[in-house]
Amino acid sequence: MRVRGGRLDLLGDPETWRRDLLAQGLVELPVNGIIGARAGLLPGLPGDPADRLIVATALEGHRLLTADRRILDWPGKLSRIDARE
Q1: Is 64 strand, coil or helix?
Q2: What is the mean pLDDT of the chain?
Q3: CA of 28: how far to CAs of 17, 22, 47, 57, in Å?
Q4: Which residues contact 42 (CB under 8 A, 6 or more apart)?
Q5: Which of the chain's ends, N or C, has fewer CB atoms near its CB within 10 Å?
Q6: DSSP class of residue 14?
Q7: How many other CB atoms are there within 10 angstroms of residue 54's CB atom?
Q8: Is 0.90 surpassed by the pTM of this model?
Q9: Each residue of 4-43: pLDDT tens digit?
Q10: How many Cα atoms within 13 Å fall on the side-chain side of residue 16?
């Protein structure tokens, strides 16, 4: 949606981009009911439901690479890397 809306520029189509990242070792993480419930209960995290699911997934012990200012500014205990740098 962000590619179609002009808010994200990828060097190719999203399916090829995903396949290449997986080939380089990226691991996809499933979203389950526990993550969904946690996403709805995150205190002080504004934003859309997708952002909440992303943060709730990362809270399972993963490091999150993001350029999203709202997630980077969120005071919760989250291992994150600022992708804007």
Answers
A1: strand
A2: 90
A3: 13, 8, 22, 11
A4: 52, 55, 56, 76
A5: C
A6: H
A7: 20
A8: no
A9: 777 777 777 888 989 999 999 988 889 999 999 999 999 9
A10: 4
Q: Using CA atoms, how far apart are residues 27 and 32, in angstroms rounded to an integer?
A: 16
CA–CA gap between residue 20 and residue 45 (Å, rounded): 31
80: β partners:
64
Q: At what angle do helices 49-58 and 33-41 cross, to 10 degrees?
A: 110
| pLDDT (0 to 100) of residue 4 | 78
* Partner residues linked to 82 by β-bridges: 66
Question: Residue 19 has what pLDDT?
Answer: 93
DSSP string, 17-40: HHHHHHHTT-------HHHHHHHH
CA angle 41-30-76, nearest 5°? 35
Give the count of alpha carbons within 13 A of 1, CB side only.
1
